[in-house]
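Backbone geometry:
***
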Amino acid sequence: MTSRTVLLYLAVLVPPVALAIVGVTHPEHLTAASAEYWRNLHIGLLPVFPLLAFGPWLVIRGYDPFLTWVVGILGFLYAAFYTGLDVLAGIGAGGLKLDDMGMATGTVFGLGRDIGFVGSVAFIAACGITALASFRRAGVLAAPGGVVLIVGAFLFLNDHIYFPLGVLGQVCIAVGLGAILFVVRRAIANGTATMPRTSTTPRTSTTPRT
C-alpha cells in the first residue's frame, strides 16, 4: 500500500471515527453542569464536521465528472449548513447556558435544528449518490458498504453524534465509506471496474451550400 493510498483512507476514515469517539463523551442534555464542556466540545469540532463531506467525494471522484460535481456541491451545502447547527445549538447554546441565559437556548436550538436539517439532507443525498455510483462501478460487492453508509447518514440526521445511535451512525459512515473505497479500488486494480456510458453517436455532417 502506497503512502498516497494510506492518506486517502485516512482522509475518508478519520473524520467519522473522530466524531464517533468524541460523541461518546457528548452530554445527553444541556445543563448548567454540562454547559462549559458542551460549548468547548463544539468549538473543538468546528473544523471536524466539515471534513465529513470529503468522504463521499473522495470515493466517487474519477467515476463520472457530473456526479463528482454534484456530490461536491452537496458536500459544500452540508458543510455550510451543518456548521450553522454546530455554532448555534452547540457553541451558542452552551455559552448562553453558561452565562445563566438558559431561557434563550430554545431559540438557538430551533434555528440550529432547521439550518442543520438542510445540511444533513444534503449529506444523505451525497452518500446515496456515492453508494449507487459505486454499485454501478464495482458491482454487487459494493452494495453492503453502500447500505451501511446510507444507514449511517440517516442516523446522523436524527441523532447527530449523541451516544449511542449518533455514535453508531458515525461508525457506519466510516465502515461504509471504507468498504466502498476498498471494493472500488480493487475493481480498478483488477480491471473489472466499469465507467459510465458516453455517447458515441457521430456528429451529423451537413452538405455545405454552394
Remarks:
- The chain has seven helices and no strands.
- The first helix runs from residue 3 to 24.
- Residues 199-210 have pLDDT under 50 and may be disordered.
